[in-house]
Specification:
single chain; 353 residues; alpha+beta
Length: 353
């Protein structure tokens, strides 16, 4: 049995507004799709294309002499192919082993996971057609060794008159969002070329000591990662201590660090389309959700909900606030909608010497 160990540092769990939303579908509607002909807008056409992907993959494996476009170029969306090329460019410059180099037996393949022994195929294909020429596809990828199959999930859309793959998820690895994390990997590679964490550490430690109720010399950062949370082309800094007990996200807009999110112990940081949140316990019978909408690398608004429960687990008090002032449930729900869906964003961590 093949075993896969992820060496990427994932710190995102499946919680959104207090409920599980790990299967949220990001980004599919971001590309306008022309009207889809009836010949394509059906389950059979999608299944045919899924099988065509693996027929092509097997042909490439069998005939290594023939020059053929990669599976990514042949069957991926324009967005997918562009980001794959950017990842390859970062891989060539990086000493980290490469984005997909986290399998025991070598790099994983986004199309096959670690199935490559003999004939590879898609099995038990399930298709859910969606609007605007998009579809969600689930299936098991199998080879001669992995006969039970490994679950894979695709998001597909019609481009250039055919179904193309817009994103791939590794279901067994917490529905690992490959497109989102390739973006983060590329961002990290670009940002780190001219980034000096030491410029910001003194202020970050001062802010961390204040947030975590520590003395400044007790702050023990051991790793950081650069993320573009709001997709404005400028990095935010995720940082954690040596025991992974407290984690923080900083803005460095204007060259001055400020805290966007801070978690420790019973809480955790989560990312959203338009911001960041901290969720978890806040004492006996207390649950907190604390969100910040981020734009241009700055906190636009902060809002939170604190629920207090009795010993029987019944809700006895709920407080919702925006920038420290009480708000109604309706106002809170409107802010949640502005925050957007939860996204699976993972920091590529760099350890301090």
């Amino acid at each position: 049995m093949k075993k896969i160990i992820f060496l990427l540092f994932a710190f995102v769990a499946a919680t959104s507004y207090g409920s599980k939303t790990s299967n949220a579908t990001p980004d599919v509607a971001s590309t306008v799709t022309n009207e889809v002909p009836d010949s394509l807008n059906n389950v059979e056409a999608v299944v045919k294309q899924v099988n065509a992907v693996y027929d092509y993959w097997n042909k490439m494996s069998e005939d290594t002499k023939e020059e053929m476009p990669s599976v990514d170029e042949r069957f991926g969306s324009k967005e997918w192919w562009e980001i794959r090329q950017e990842v390859a460019a970062i891989d060539r410059e990086c000493e980290c082993g490469g984005f997909f180099d986290f399998g025991e037996e070598g790099p994983l393949d986004p199309w096959t996971y670690d199935c490559y022994e003999g004939y590879v195929s898609a099995n038990d294909i399930q298709v859910k057609l969606q609007e605007k020429g998009t579809a969600e596809v689930k299936f098991l990828v199998k080879d001669a060794v992995t006969t039970k199959g490994i679950p894979i999930r695709w998001l597909m859309r019609v481009e250039d008159g055919q179904w193309r793959v817009a994103n791939i998820f590794f279901v067994n690895d917490d529905d690992y969002d490959i497109l989102m994390n390739m973006r983060a990997y590329v961002d990290d590679g670009k940002f780190n070329k001219n980034f000096d964490i030491n410029k910001y550490l003194p202020k970050m430690k001062e802010l961390a000591a204040e947030k975590q109720d520590l003395e400044k010399d007790e702050v023990s950062f051991n790793a950081y990662g650069l993320l573009d949370v709001d997709r404005d082309g400028a990095p935010e800094v995720f940082i954690q201590d040596k025991d992974h007990y407290y984690k923080m996200l900083f803005s460095i807009a204007g060259g001055q660090p400020s805290v966007l999110a801070s978690s420790s112990g019973a809480t955790e940081i989560y990312f959203y389309e338009n911001g960041v949140g901290v969720q978890g316990g806040c004492g006996t019978g207390c649950m907190m959700s604390d969100f910040t909408i981020v734009k241009n690398s700055k906190a636009v608004v902060n809002f939170r909900s604190i629920d207090q429960y009795d010993l029987e687990g019944e809700l006895i008090e709920n407080n919702k606030s925006k920038d420290g002032k009480d708000i109604t449930d309706k106002e809170y729900d409107k802010l949640c909608s502005q925050l957007g869906k939860q996204v699976d964003l993972t920091a590529m961590l760099h350890h301090f010497d």
